[in-house]
C-alpha cells in the first residue's frame, strides 16, 4: 500500500515519502504550502490510490472541534416534543435520536479503513487544533449525552492541510508528520501542466512558463499566482487561441501578458507589473 502519485496528480519524490511515512507512523500528515499547490487534491488522490473512501471536513472560521465529533440537535427534539403522536413521543424519549454524528465519528465507525481530510485547519480559531488533540491521538472520544465511548474501529489515514495563515500549537505539531509542499520548479510544473493539457505545444508552454515565473518572481507582489492560476491562464490562452508571439517579447524584456487577470488578482500587483514593464521599455 504505497502511494506513488497518480495519472492526474504529480507527486514529487519527497511528497511520496512523506505520505508513506505518515501512513507507517500512523500519524496525521500535516501538509502546508501556498494555496493551489495541490494539498486538498493530495488527500483525494491518496484515498483513491489506496481505494479508501475519503471523508472531508472543510474548516471555516466558525468551525468548532465538537462539530467534528457530534452535535446534539436540541431544536429538533423540542419540536418533536410538541407533536402529540405516539411515534414522536417515543422518539423524543431517546436522546440518541438527536445526536448528529460528525465527520470524525463517521470515520471512526466506518466498516472499512477510510481517509479523513481536515482541510484548511488554519481557518479555525486558535483553540481548534488543541481541542482535537486527544481525539486524533487516541482515536476515541466520549459522548456525554449518551455516556458512550466512540472508538475507532480502524485508524483512519488523516490529512490536515494548512495555508499557513496561523501558527499551529506545538502540542499539535508534535503529533503530526509534517510536509511542506514547495512551489513546483519548472520541470515539475511542466509535468503538472502535461497532466491537465496533454497536447499543449512545447513552444507555447515554454513561453507561458517563462512569463509565469517572471510574474511570480516580481519583488513586492502581494499575491503570487499559483499552480491553479497558471492552469486557468493556460486554459484561456488555448481557448482564445493566443499566438506564441503575444507571449514572447523580442528583446528578452518583460511585457504585460495577455489575460493577466488570470494570474494577478489585485490592482496593486497589476500596477506594479505595468510599472516594471514601462520602466524596462524606457531603459532600452
Ligand atoms: N501536483 C499536482 N498535480 C496535478 N494537478 C495539480 C497539482 N497541484 C495542483 N494541481 C492543480 O491545482 C488545483 C488546485 O489544487 P488544490 O488541491 O485545490 O490546492 P490547495 O488545496 O493546495 O489550495 C488542482 O485542482 C489541480 O488542478
Ligand atoms: Mg485546498
Largest sheet: 5 strands, parallel
Structural class: alpha/beta
The largest beta-sheet arranges its strands as 2-5-8-1-9
Integer average pLDDT: 92
Radius of gyration: 24 Å
Order of secondary-structure elements: HEHEHEHHEHEHHEEEHEHHHH
What proportion strand? Answer: 5-15%
Q: List the bound ligands.
A: adenosine-5'-diphosphate, magnesium ion
Ranges with pLDDT <50 over ≥5 residues?
A: none
Helix content: 40-55%
Query: What is the end-to-end distance?
Result: 58 Å
Task: Describe how the helices and strands are arranged.
Layout: H1 13-25, E1 29-32, H2 39-49, E2 54-58, H3 65-69, E3 70-72, H4 74-81, H5 86-93, E4 99-101, H6 103-109, E5 115-119, H7 127-131, H8 133-138, E6 140-143, E7 148-151, E8 157-162, H9 170-174, E9 177-180, H10 186-196, H11 202-216, H12 227-239, H13 267-282
Parallel strand pairs: 1-8, 1-9, 2-5, 5-8
Antiparallel strand pairs: 3-4, 6-7
The structure holds adenosine-5'-diphosphate and magnesium ion.
Amino acid at each position: 500500500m504505497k502511494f506513488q502519485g497518480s495519472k492526474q496528480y504529480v507527486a514529487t519524490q519527497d511528497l511520496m515519502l512523506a505520505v508513506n511515512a505518515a501512513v507507517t507512523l500512523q500519524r496525521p500528515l500535516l501538509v502546508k504550502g501556498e494555496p493551489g499547490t495541490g494539498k486538498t487534491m493530495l488527500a483525494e488522490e491518496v484515498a483513491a490510490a489506496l481505494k479508501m473512501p475519503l471523508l472531508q471536513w472543510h474548516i471555516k472560521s466558525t468551525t468548532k472541534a465538537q462539530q467534528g465529533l457530534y452535535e446534539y440537535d436540541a431544536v429538533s427534539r423540542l419540536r418533536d416534543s410538541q407533536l402529540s403522536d405516539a411515534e414522536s413521543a417515543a422518539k423524543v424519549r431517546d436522546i440518541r435520536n438527536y445526536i448528529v454524528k460528525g465527520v470524525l465519528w463517521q470515520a471512526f465507525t466506518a466498516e472499512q479503513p477510510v481517509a479523513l481530510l481536515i482541510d484548511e485547519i488554519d481557518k479555525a480559531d486558535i483553540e481548534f487544533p488543541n481541542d482535537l488533540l486527544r481525539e486524533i491521538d487516541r482515536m476515541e472520544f466520549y459522548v456525554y449525552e449518551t455516556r458512550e465511548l466512540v472508538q475507532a474501529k480502524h485508524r483512519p489515514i488523516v490529512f490536515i492541510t494548512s495555508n499557513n495563515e496561523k501558527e499551529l500549537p506545538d502540542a499539535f505539531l508534535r503529533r503530526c508528520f509534517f510536509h511542506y509542499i514547495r512551489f513546483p520548479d519548472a520541470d515539475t510544473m511542466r509535468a503538472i501542466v502535461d497532466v491537465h493539457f496533454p497536447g499543449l505545444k512545447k513552444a507555447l508552454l515554454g513561453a507561458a512558463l517563462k512569463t509565469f515565473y517572471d510574474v511570480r518572481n516580481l519583488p513586492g507582489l502581494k499575491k503570487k499566482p499559483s499552480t491553479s492560476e497558471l492552469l486557468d491562464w493556460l486554459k484561456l490562452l488555448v481557448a482564445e487561441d493566443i499566438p506564441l508571439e503575444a507571449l514572447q517579447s523580442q528583446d528578452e524584456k518583460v511585457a504585460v501578458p495577455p489575460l493577466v487577470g488570470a494570474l494577478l488578482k489585485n490592482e496593486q500587483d497589476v500596477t506594479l507589473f505595468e510599472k516594471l514593464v514601462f520602466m524596462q521599455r524606457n531603459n532600452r
